[in-house]
UniProtKB/TrEMBL annotation:
Domain of life of the source: Eukaryota
Pfam families, sorted: RNase_H2_suC
Gene name tied to this protein: rnaseh2c
GO BP term, pick one: RNA catabolic process
Lineage, highest ranks first: Eukaryota, Metazoa, Chordata, Craniata, Vertebrata
InterPro entries recorded: RNase_H2_subunit_C, RNase_H2_suC
Gene Ontology CC, one term: ribonuclease H2 complex
Name the record gives this protein: Uncharacterized protein
Length: 138
């Protein structure tokens, strides 16, 4: 019995990057079951109290502690929007760039931000990867 292997490809259209918005970006410690535009300012006020590089804010009555993080040097963050959603795993998908950013604020639930947070460590990965893959010097 012949076996076949299907794989789909997701294409990212970069042609819209020059017209992309540059919004304030926040990474929240929750899952929001909604796709599409939302009036974020009606539900999340980024008015934060700042002290020692830490921001505090309330979201739906829960205290959040956050910190602003910059993208690694030479990198730009992209927010992608689905243009064509595949109807099966054999069909290709298409995404387009809707927004770009160079920094964002990430939020923890009740826990102060630290260098051990996964998102902070991820931002240092390009530098670590360059060191790992750099040619060895004799």
């Amino acid at each position: 019995m012949p076996m076949s292997c299907y794989s789909s490809v997701t294409t990212v259209r970069l042609d819209a990057i020059k017209d992309a918005e540059t919004p304030r970006v926040h990474s929240l410690p929750c899952e929001i079951e909604h796709d599409g535009p939302a009036e974020v300012s009606a539900y999340f006020s980024a008015t934060a109290k700042e002290r020692k590089h830490e921001k505090t804010v309330s979201f739906r009555g829960r205290g959040l502690k956050g910190q602003e993080v910059s993208c690694p040097k030479g990198y730009t963050g992209l927010i992608l929007q689905e243009v064509h959603k595949p109807s099966s795993d054999q069909e290709d998908g298409v995404l387009k760039v809707s927004s770009v950013f160079n920094k964002f604020t990430y939020w923890n639930l009740d826990t102060p931000p630290s260098s051990d947070d996964g998102i902070v460590m991820a931002m240092s990965w390009p530098q670590v990867a360059n060191a790992i893959h750099a040619p060895l010097e004799d």
